[in-house]
Target: serine--tRNA ligase
Amino acid sequence: MSRSWSHLLLCCLKGCIHQAGCLFQRMPPVHNRHLKWCRLNSQLTSGRKHKQSAEISPSEWTSPLQLEPVELDLDYLCNPDSVQDIQNNIGNRKGVGDIHLVRKLYECYQQETDPIKRQDLHRKFINAALNIPNRSHPLAPIGDESKARLVETVGTQRNFDFEPLTVVEIGEKLGHLRTDKLTHTTGPKTYFFKDGFAKLEQALIRYTLSKILKKGFQLVGVPELIHPDIVEGCGFKTTGETVQVYRLCPETYGQVCLAGTAEMPLAGYFLNEVLDHKKLPVRVAAVSRCYRAETSGVEEEQGIYRVHQFTKVEMFGVTDGNSSSGDNLLSEFIGIEKEIFSELGLHFRILDMPSVELGAPACRKFDMEAWMPAKKFWGEISSTSNCTDFQSRRLNIKYRNNQGNLRHCTTVNGTACAIPRTIMAIVENFQEKDGTVLFPKVLWEFMDDRTQLSKSYHHGKIHWIKFSRSK
Ligand SMILES: *C1O[C@H](CO)[C@@H](O)[C@H](O)[C@H]1NC(C)=O
Ligand SMILES: *[C@@H]1O[C@H](CO)[C@@H](O)[C@H](O)[C@H]1NC(C)=O
Ligand SMILES: *[C@@H]1O[C@H](CO)[C@@H](O)[C@H](O)[C@H]1NC(C)=O
Ligand SMILES: *[C@@H]1O[C@H](CO)[C@@H](O)[C@H](O)[C@H]1NC(C)=O
Model:
């Protein structure tokens, strides 16, 4: 206990000195976060019993995150009989991963007697093995996007007797959206929702939650700042050329990424857990801001379709590896999504996604695409994946089966509502010739009984004012 007290004092001191130094140098205080924690903690502990203060250990904040060693399926990965199978799967996917390298490193590691070299070979072997994608479901189509299998089409395409406008045209005309003149405020691929769109966003969140919380999901408020190891554990890269996850400057903030989807912190929530078999499946849901570095030059994806940040209601499930119970969860998620998009009156289709589209973690993935009438294309509004044990092996999420043995869980994720794209589908499909938009009936109660979108009261125009700096 005395150690933790002296540590506390020391870090408060360090923080203060640092802060003072920064003030003098007029630089942003680098360890501000740390300092705040110290203040908070001394507030928390002052006037309380010592027992409580000793329980709050600062070590978790100062020492690096240590993940359990990844328990890969070596029986499969290192089995000579699986090589062809794995090689074919890599070929069917994006071609990432080298199973021959994995096997070669594994052999060298086994033959090596020098303990230091052995350790190094083991690390290299694991790193190579982590690049091998999950097995694909036997029923998943093989090939690229064009091989997606149409499972079902819901609703019918509306016939317009006028040329439908885009969500950006409608939003800006009525004063509910701003996607231009943002460069000095936020940069490209961002937007402001105003009035009607901002209320529509909240209504969609509340409607979606009211739906899924009735179905046994537990709502979780998630942190959007997460450790890169959790992101990697979910199967996303955090370094390299094509990385789509934002990472804060490590010199200033340490190891911090911005979550690209709530699935990341939700998966991280179960890190190192052993779940009770009787309580499976566990269903959780979160509303979060999602941050994506990706860009696109495709014309259809301009506007609010592909953006750097947006709000999403996400479902996440953890279950056992039992196929009989397991398959149900994926279809349950798909059923919920179907219900939501049908009630919103959208015209959409469900696709069984082919191998190239599965990413590394998923063994099967179903996308839902809504018809976007202005630019006349199917736009992805939801994606649901069965990741089997890919994430749970990396994040050490287990359950004890009926025989008392520890087994890795299966994780399933699915989009309940990605806000900007759902707004786009609603606004474009339900626009009237007079320029107004009729809201889906299920949203009325969440919109103070407003039934349609008309011109905003706060419709101001932005004027650029040239100013010169006076000396
Ligand atoms: C992926 O899926 C299978 C089960 O479908 C599992 O046994 C295997 O270990 C997983 N592969 C990886 C590389 O995690
Ligand atoms: C899977 O479920 C079946 C039927 O409920 C059961 O007999 C079997 O033991 C389960 N397997 C595991 C690994 O839990
Ligand atoms: C996921 O896929 C595996 C492998 O095909 C299957 O056994 C399991 O039942 C599926 N789980 C879910 C939740 O769909
Ligand atoms: C679900 O997980 C898979 C694999 O991690 C990922 O590719 C997909 O984007 C996730 N879907 C959502 C909606 O987060």
